[in-house]
Structure formats: structure tokens, C-alpha cells
Amino acid sequence: MASARDVLESVIKRMSVFKNKEVLYPEYIPQHLPHREAQLKQLAEIFRVMLTAPGSVSMRAMLVGGVGVGKTVTARVFGSTMRSLARERGIDLRYIHVNCHRDRTLYEVVAEIVRQIGAPIPLRGLSPREMMLALLNYIERNDIYALVTLDEFDYFVSAAGNDAVYFIVRLYDEYPEAKKRMSFIFIARDLSALSQLDPTTESYILKHVIKFDPYTSDELFDILVQRRNAAFYEGTVDDEVLRYIADMEGVDRGGEGNARAAIEALLLAGEAADYEGAQKVTIEHVRKALSHVQPDIVRVSEILPYLQLHELLILKAAIRVLRRKGEAYARIGEIEEEYRSICQMYGEEPRKHTQVYEYVNNLKKMGVIEARVSGKGFRGRSTLVSIMAPLDALEKQVDSLIEKRRTANRKRLL
Ligand SMILES: Nc1ncnc2c1ncn2[C@@H]1O[C@H](COP(=O)(O)OP(=O)(O)O)[C@@H](O)[C@H]1O
Ligand SMILES: [Mg+2]
């Protein structure tokens, strides 16, 4: 007779077409980027000097293109590859990725760079300029180089303004004697945001522009093949299913050329198949999935990987309260209560009330939740929180990120 373990395992295995679903999540970084070789090559031309003559000159490049065309992932893959090439040459090159949708003031951006480099510089009480000066001293003393990406740079330009952009872009004009240890990649959807800058600053940024065009159907097909092979059990997703998605999204077929939407469709189609207990993902599953894809979840899931553990725990609390109540809004007090019990469940120390409030503000600022102050009720005024994306899909992503953060924290403590 089969052991209980075998029985369970055979059922569990059969219950999913996925062998590694994480491969389809937005934060997954593939090793190979089909159809972005040209952009990687241009980046290499611009930044090769960081390896051949480190410290001699500070470079800047601007990556431009619409949503889901691989700007962020290309910068990340380039950065991590540069880091390992540098290491082989005995150079300590750090890759820093800042999302300006999240950190959009000069202070926040500089503080984030300081944090990612791990420089022991107090973040309170210093102006951004003082912090930057301390940082430049720190990397000089410790012989560190940094390639800094300011992603969603459009937000920084409109929120921080000309002087802040000028400061970043012409950093070494202020310290002409300093070794040029920091270089920058800027990423934006289009260049129109830059027109509000003064012409000198603008021309400085636009020295090296790398364009990312929307993907064609054939290109998306290649990207999907790579993900399918890594994410699904063999034989569960036929090429024709991928072809169908690629044709829906390909720019040459009237789509947006958005790889994120294509990968998301594949994920949702797989989930639809699992939900029905089907052995294979069919075009009908894709159709069902696409009718459910809402732009909100795509936008929100892009920002989730940048959230801290306790922001994620609060978001999870909000999701649970909203689902339980079945209403559009939940009071922040209820969410905080739920957050405390979730913390207890995970064995995490809950943050203080003021900190929780700050996290909620952050989540609002990033557009993950909506928050507004209620009219005066019998309990007085209260902040009301609402979430626009589908709760179940969102919670799944939040859960997987919480696990990831907790594992990372545990490793750090060991
Ligand atoms: N050439 C590619 N090869 C593999 N995956 C890609 C490629 N281009 C984009 N992706 C994937 O598509 C999604 C969107 O890419 P992303 O870099 O976030 O787009 P953007 O920053 O331009 O909005 C990510 O999951 C990314 O890994
Ligand atoms: Mg991006």
C-alpha cells in the first residue's frame, strides 16, 4: 500500500501546473533578457570606464520607454553583472536601485542611497547636501564605487524640482577634486517631465539616451517561453497558449508591447487552470484571466517589492479587514488592531502607533492604498483606508513578499 506521504504528495503535485510560480512574480529577475541585448550593450559602452579607469569620470545614462518594456529589469541585470565583473577585477562596485515613486524628495533619495550602501551616517539632523558629502567621504575612505539607478525619475523631477535634479546630475561640479566614484542611470517613461528643468540640466541628463521600444508579438513570445519553462511543469502550457498571449499584447498586433502584462496573464491563466483542477493551461484560461486583469493590480504589484516588512504587514491587515467587512473603506483603528494580531501570528514586534501611521501615509503616497479622513462621526474623525486592486490576488503577492522579507531578516540576524 502507498504511504500516506505518497498519497498526499501525488495529490498535491497534481493540484498545480506550477513548479515554480515565483518566476512569474514582478520582482523575479531573470538571468537572460531576450531582445534587450542592444540596450545592455549601450549601457556597457557608457559605463565600461567604471571598470577600465575607475574614479576618472562620472557617467550618466537615461533609459526611456513605456510601461513593461524592461527598463527596470535591464538596469538591475546590468548593475548586478557590473558588480560581479568589478569584483573579479578587485573593485568594490555597488549597485544601488532607488525607486523615486517611493522616494521622491532629495532627502529621501540621498538617505536611500546611504542606506543601501550601508554607510554609518545619521539620517536625522543632516541636510541632503551634508548627507551626500558624508557619503562621498565614506566611499572614498572605504574605496567603494557606486552605480546608482534613479528609477521612475519622472516623479523625482516633478516632486523635487530643478535644484535637486541639478544637485544630483552635476554632483561633481560641487566637488571638482573628488574622485568620481558615483555614476547614475536615470529611468523615465518619457522625456516630457524633463522639459520643466532648465536647459543646462536637461542637456546634462540627455547626453546618453537609451530607448526601450514596446515589444512585438514575436519578442513577447520569446520572453514567455523562457518564463514558461522555468515556472510550469513540462507539457502543461503549449506554445499556442503563449502565442495567444503574445498576440494580444504585441505592439505590432495593436497591443501595448508590455511584458509585465503578458507575464501576468500567463500567471493568472495558470491560476485559473489550478482553480479548475485542470492538467493543462488552455487558451480559455487565458481568456478568463485576461478579463480579470485590472490595470490597478499591475500598477500596485510593481511597487510592492519596495515595501518594508511592516508596511507589508499593515497592507495585509488592511486587506483582511476590508474583505471581512465587505465594504469599500476600513477605519485605520481596525486595521491597526488586525495588524497587531498578524504581528503576533508571525512573532514580529508590532510598531508603535505613530510609526504605523507613518507607514500608512507611505502606502498612500505610493498609491498602494487610498486614505481619506472621515466626516465627524460619534468616534470623532478617523482615517479611512481603501484598496482599489482585487484583494485575493494582492494578498497572495503580499504573503510571498512577507515570507521573503522574514527569511532575509533571519539570515541577517544569523
Ligand atoms: N527582455 C526581457 N526578458 C525577460 N523578461 C523581461 C524582459 N523585459 C521585461 N521583462 C519582464 O517584464 C516585467 C516588466 O519589466 P520591467 O523592467 O519592470 O518594465 P519597465 O520598468 O520598463 O516598466 C518584469 O517582470 C520583467 O522581468
Ligand atoms: Mg520600471
Automatic annotation (TrEMBL):
GO biological processes: DNA replication
Keyword ATP-binding: yes
Keywords noted in UniProt: ATP-binding, DNA replication, Nucleotide-binding
Biological function: Involved in regulation of DNA replication.
Native source species: Ignisphaera aggregans
Residues reported to bind ATP: 69-73, 215, 227
Annotated SMART domains: Cdc6_C
Cdc6 C-terminal domain: residues covered: 315-398
Pfam families: AAA_22, Cdc6_lid, WHD_Cdc6
Family statement drawn from the similarity comment of this UniProt entry: Belongs to the CDC6/cdc18 family.
Keyword ATP-binding: yes
GO molecular function, one term: ATP hydrolysis activity
NCBIfam families associated with the record: orc1/cdc6 family replication initiation protein, PRK00411.1-1
Protein name (record): ORC1-type DNA replication protein
